[in-house]
Structure formats: structure tokens, C-alpha cells
């Protein structure tokens, strides 16, 4: 699909996500928040996914499905890496700064709700379009969770709310990747171009 509205929405999403990656990775390191760092890595992955979607927007369905497989694999790697970082932090980490988590989480939520809103009309498209929508939806849910974690850290003075949210974000990424893998697999099986690839 080479709809100019789709391409414009992807460019906006790409620029906003790349900017938020830079902001959140610095904030996550400064605040010692695993949830913010997980969200920052997710912003980076989404930036790459939007760039890949732009690259294959005018190609045949089989190529868009292959791009969706790459994006699903990225989501899966993200989810599993967050599981590892969260487990390490549970053993050796410190309590993060709740105020920074809350402020940055609120900004990230605003960005992700805006991106999800401009991509909403494309949510029922092929696996490539659906993967973009799922990423954006998961990001907005993740940011709500980061803000709840900030409240939990502020109220308890402990790290467990931050670690819990990082774990939830990991599960969302793995669950979303499985859904995208399945749809892309079905599209590749149905595509006549696959047999010639």
C-alpha cells in the first residue's frame, strides 16, 4: 500500500519515536529506571520498524509480510532482553527516581497516544500495517504503566513497581510479536509470489 496518508503518518511516527528514544534513554539512565530504559529501547525499535514500513510501503504483499516478520522478531528480542535486564535489576538494582519516571512517562504517553491516533485508521490492514498499529498501541499502554510504576515507587520507596512494569512491557512485546508472526505467515502462504522467491 502506497497511500500518501499512510506514508505521512509513518514519517511523523518515525520522527517522534526517534526523538523520544534519545530523551528516554538519558532519563532512564539518570533516574535508574528499568521501565524507562525498556520504553526507550522500544522507541528505538519502533523507529526502525516505521523506517522499514516506509521502505516496503509500495511493494507487493509478500514483501510487506516479510517486513512484518522482521518487525515481529525485533519485538520478540526486545521483550526477551527486557526480561533479562529486569531479572538482573531485581537482584542488583536500586530504587529509581519516581519524579523523573512520572514526568517522562507522561510526555511519552502523549507522544504515543498521538501516534496511535494517526495510525488508528490503518489498524485493520495487512500484517505490516497491523504491526505498526500494535507497536503504537503497546507503547501507549506501556506509558500508562510507567506512570503507575512511578506512583508505586514514590509511594513505597522500592523498585518492585518499576520492575513489574518492565515485565509487563516485555510480555506485551512477546505477545504482539506472536500475533504479527501468525498474520505474516498466513499472508506469505497465501501469496503467489512466495513460490518464486
Automatic annotation (TrEMBL):
SUPFAM superfamilies: Cation efflux protein transmembrane domain-like. InterPro entries: Cation_efflux_TM (IPR058533), Cation_efflux_TMD_sf (IPR027469), CDF/SLC30A (IPR050681). It comes from the Bacteria. Residues 10-188 form the Cation efflux protein transmembrane domain. The keyword Transmembrane applies. Gene3D superfamilies: Cation efflux protein transmembrane domain. The chain crosses the membrane at residues 9-31, 43-63, 75-94, 100-120, 140-157, 163-181. It is found in: Membrane. It is a multi-pass membrane protein. This is Cobalt transporter. The keyword Zinc applies. Keywords: Ion transport, Membrane, Transmembrane, Transmembrane helix, Transport, Zinc, Zinc transport.
Amino acid at each position: 500500500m502506497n497511500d500518501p496518508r499512510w506514508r505521512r503518518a509513518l514519517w511523523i511516527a518515525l520522527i517522534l519515536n526517534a526523538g523520544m528514544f534519545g530523551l528516554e534513554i538519558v532519563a532512564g539512565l539518570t533516574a535508574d529506571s528499568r521501565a524507562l530504559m525498556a520504553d526507550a529501547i522500544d522507541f528505538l525499535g519502533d523507529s526502525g520498524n516505521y523506517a522499514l514500513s516506509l521502505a516496503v510501503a509500495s511493494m507487493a504483499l509478500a514483501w510487506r509480510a516479510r517486513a512484518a516478520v522482521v518487525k515481529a522478531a525485533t519485538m520478540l528480542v526486545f521483550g526477551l532482553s527486557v526480561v533479562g535486564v529486569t531479572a538482573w535489576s531485581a537482584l542488583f538494582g536500586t530504587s529509581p527516581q519516581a519524579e523523573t519516571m512520572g514526568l517522562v512517562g507522561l510526555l511519552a504517553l502523549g507522544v504515543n497516544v498521538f501516534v496511535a491516533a494517526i495510525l488508528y485508521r490503518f489498524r485493520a490492514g495487512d500484517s505490516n500495517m497491523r504491526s505498526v498499529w500494535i507497536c503504537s498501541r503497546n507503547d501507549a499502554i506501556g506509558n500508562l504503566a510507567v506512570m503507575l510504576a512511578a506512583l508505586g515507587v514514590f509511594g513505597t520507596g522500592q523498585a518492585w513497581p518499576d520492575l513489574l512494569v518492565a515485565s509487563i512491557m516485555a510480555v506485551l512485546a512477546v505477545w504482539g510479536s506472536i500475533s504479527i508472526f501468525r498474520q505474516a505467515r498466513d499472508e506469505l502462504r497465501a501469496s503467489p509470489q512466495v513460490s518464486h522467491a
